[in-house]
Design the sequence.
């Protein structure tokens, strides 16, 4: 109810502030007997952690995950899986100059007003650090989905006005391997180079820039999604919009579909060589009537530029007086490279949840 | 869990198929002592009902709502409010030719596969008719919000590639009055004329076209929205994406924000003449850190073209054989004029829910 | 949240007041393709309806149920099942003398204070009439359970200080047939006669008396119940305590178990002739660690005497003045004969819900 | 859904196994700005911890609680409060002899069957150790309730067949102080002495015995509880029945109410000297129609004898063969003295939850 849980049957609850003792997550509802590969979970976290390259924040945190419960002799037991990630580099002095002022386009003012109290050492609960807990939980969801052959993978498809061309999504492993070749996590090498160079220029100006992440889910069975409110794309949309800095979500034809004619947009059903039902086009983005149709699920997420810039900005303080926010600290010039594992994690959590929900339907 | 409920404290559950006895909704959690204006609820439904003009479906249904419970001597009692809308014009023979085939880009195939059974008289539960129940519930939510001065209003901002200019949102009543002057529900008269003419042309070709609805919420108090998963825009996004035919959602700067620099995008805090905290710009769309900041909430919703076109289309049937779907029946050439009250209803439900949720927070 | 829903996966929401248009229920989450026997549902309602015999209220209502949605060609479709029962005999003049006074041990005072408004024509939402909606939903749950061989059955085991002896529970059909031979619904004929005679005497004095219902669930698979909070008996207990007039719940050894030694109370595991795991005794009531163990589930429910008596009683009114409540109207001298189908319905709803929840657990 | 959460608005999720790294709890929904007294939380845990006296288990654990999040400078921030209690004395060799066998009247067999995997080092998740997490969360709930003047307190009212007389509940602090004078936690000193002597005798025989806990909630405002399913006593009942070893729950007149006449049982309304509405008697146990009526809330909980006895017992193993369980380890001869803080904690959680839920009702 207070907004810290996500999912119905594969349900997570995250906790922790950026500058407290630890952040963490409880997964309640993960099936029993699932083998847990702790190295895989850690590797997912490593893709999100700060300090990875010149185009991410220079903060250094190891983001080491520890499992407290729910796993016995390497397998899930059906009981809640608790994972914590201790906070290490809590250099809160970096933030002490901002104790009293409301940073523009941050959550300082809204938290202060809503709760009447605010952990001013960084973003507190509103910090993107909270998403590390999601990545840990999403890694467990991925392990479950992989056991059923379902793949979830994403890459950076835009930075500023630089867009990647369409990419091949037939092989998830090849996609991910190719993506990890560059620090911006764009599958297309030429575009990646252009993006990196652009972000580096933005960084040097003490500025930030937005971008987009495209995500794909393949080998998903027909039938996931619950009409009428919990349509699969509605839950994916909510999951994505709950990630810090996300301002837009579209699936299949998306916003451009609003400009099309029905005769162009309808996806014609066919049987493929193996006798499976497919569609010739995929403007539906793998989802019809809110339910997966067996085609690849495709969606795109828009991230605004990070609000913390290395430039001084006028603002007001809690007393309502004019103040200036100083451009200090260590932040990301562009959030999308580190957002890729977060998008994947949230997508995996949605699919895992609907996978379990779908198993309960038919008598 | 089965997806027919929405909201946490102001919670609705809808039921009913397009060709059954009735559709309806239960509102559980509406505060007691709220005066209920049945005429207002009916007027909202009338904006969604079929047969309104030449650019909507020619089906005629009165969509008359009846309250079964929860209201005593004109006021809510705090008990569940049940409302039903009988189905009148169930001309299911219009659909009998489609019993066995899967209509392209409809939910026929996915429902058939998920449930193993399907009410083939029209869309059954997947029909947009279900949204009438949402409009009735949303009207009650609007009544509650109006009691607190909060306004929710929307209009058609795009049809195909025709976009309306920015419009004045300072006066909700004037906005709505202006919008209701034309059948396409666009506040800008010149654009409205262009849209109507375009839709009429599409209709004559037996085709359909998509469009966009822009929605505004004004006078919303600071503090609505629950971090971290139930951010206000995440719940608005899910609400919108749960509406039939919606393929995209963005708020504030939206997708264009992904192309901006942080130094451009940050909304500078100021005090206005009355000493209230405002921002100079509103790229945040009235929401920061998932919590309303007192500025107008602004978002846009993209609708794909209606899948039912008056042209014959190749498809397959349940037995997996090639078949042809015939272009018969009475359907909308463009869904967005009738979608305006649905978008408003879902937005009102989200705000009502978060309004109640917010009242529980501070000790 | 507002308390009108029950269950997680097999979820019901009831609505309606005793003197409004209708009462009803939505079942959300019933599996698709379940054959629905409307006669069975009606027969269950008939066991609860008023006016059955001299020891129940003389109000006459047919309690005719109507299905509005979710069933197509005799089978469930996986969409919400809406059922309504119109209110017929709303002789509210019987109650008009009580408009302003708080009836002792009724919900008048608490509703009035909580909601600030109250439907004073009878109990409104607090009326036991609401349980008719539960019985209709419970009948659908029973149909689902029967498809898996699970039986739910109950009888009146005590009226006042008259207790029935232990009864044979090996054959559910025989049990029910025997029980329906008498108007008090006690399986033991001699006890039944004694109970009926006692209730009739109480009725003649214008008084009421309490009693107990014992309920059994047989052929229940091992594994139903979710530790740690949603233990099967915890959900059964909540279900029973949510029925009007219930003041106590115990399962297995119950309150007498609190007086026993562990060496007496432990249920020894054995294999029966077919190689199934059984226990020699069943002090655990078929549930261990909150999870069904395959033995018969056994519990008992205590009902207080009906508060409405045909005697004048001193009380106070809404203005806080002394008043007198008059002993008029038509009420039950003893509620337990009509409570039997309600207890069964709520038990069936709990088991159906946990049956679906259990199917999601193992990978 | 998987049963590890309790509450709607003041919601807890517990995690952890008896022999894992740690157990813990997340509280989601605690209002902001509540002062947190860590010493009070620890003192509550100390009342539950093992090794307190000769009549409790001799295991020694300090059960030291640590807050990981949600508290800043001594006050709650409105974000999730995570608390962990590391497991210290995990002497799992004590249990190694039981790896393969199903202990009678434990959850071994049901967990094994439900999950297909079981942490056999003690009870795993089914261990009463999990209730320590509840006590920690309940202590926070108590702090919130105390801020509103609401008191929750309990004592041991029966051990075996030894019953305490009625006790004075007008002063919560005096009640608790008196109760803590003896190791069995019964307010009546003479009864306490008898109980202690009886339990000690049982312990010497290697046996265990059941008992009852009576709980009181005073100064509770009118209006808590949500009809029709979430009646206050229904949620209290579920809370109590979710505690390990509980087999029965009754409130107000309870099971004995089932033997009474309506004319005896009705609680007559009066105004007291201060003009407050009271009832002359309190057979309703402070709750009418599921809603608190301002009188003291009174209920009783029955605990079966602990299943682990220090005697050898015949049983079967996972392979289905006859086996013997050995009477080793360190367990409680009678659970009720340590159950008192657990009963209080769960009661406090229910009241805190309904307190917040009630604040949302009236417009």
Sequence:
């Amino acid at each position: 109810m207070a907004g810290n849980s996500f999912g119905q049957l594969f349900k997570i609850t995250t906790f922790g502030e950026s500058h407290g003792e630890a952040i963490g997550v409880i997964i309640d509802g993960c099936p029993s007997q699932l083998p847990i590969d702790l190295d895989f979970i850690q590797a997912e976290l490593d893709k999100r952690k700060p300090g990875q390259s010149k185009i991410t924040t220079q903060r250094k945190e190891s983001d080491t995950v520890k499992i407290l419960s729910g796993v016995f002799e390497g397998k899930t037991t059906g009981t809640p899986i608790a994972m914590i990630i201790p906070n290490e580099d809590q250099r809160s002095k970096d933030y002490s100059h901002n104790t009293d002022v409301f940073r523009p386009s941050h959550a300082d003012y809204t938290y202060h007003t809503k709760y009447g109290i605010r952990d001013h050492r960084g973003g507190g609960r509103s910090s993107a650090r909270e998403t590390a807990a999601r990545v840990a939980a999403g890694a467990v969801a991925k392990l479950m989905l992989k056991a059923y052959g379902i793949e979830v993978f994403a890459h950076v498809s835009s930075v500023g006005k630089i867009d990647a061309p369409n990419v091949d999504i037939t092989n998830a492993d090849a996609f991910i391997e190719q993506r990890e070749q560059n620090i911006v996590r764009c599958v297309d090498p030429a575009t990646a180079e252009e993006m990196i160079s652009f972000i580096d220029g933005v960084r040097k100006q003490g500025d930030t820039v937005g971008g987009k992440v495209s995500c794909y889910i393949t080998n998903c069975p027909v039938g996931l999604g619950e009409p009428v409110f919990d349509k699969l794309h509605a839950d994916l949309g909510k999951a994505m919009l709950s990630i810090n800095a996300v301002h837009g979500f579209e699936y299949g034809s998306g916003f451009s579909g609003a400009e099309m004619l029905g005769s162009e947009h309808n996806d014609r059903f066919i049987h493929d060589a193996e006798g499976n039902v497919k569609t010739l086009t995929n403007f539906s983005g793998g989802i019809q009537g809110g339910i997966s149709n067996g085609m690849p699920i495709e969606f795109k997420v828009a991230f605004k530029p990070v609000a913390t810039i290395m430039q001084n900005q006028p603002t007001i303080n809690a007393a309502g007086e004019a103040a200036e926010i100083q451009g200090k600290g260590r932040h990301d010039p562009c959030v999308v490279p580190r957002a890729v594992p977060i998008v994947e994690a949230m997508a995996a959590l949605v699919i895992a949840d609907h996978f379990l929900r779908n198993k309960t339907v038919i008598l």
User: Anything to note?
Assistant: Chain D has a mean pLDDT of 93. Residues 336-358 of chain D form the longest helix (23 residues). The domain at 5-358 of chain D is CATH 3.60.150.10 (Chorismate synthase, AroC fold). Chain D touches chain A through 45 residues (CB under 8 Å).
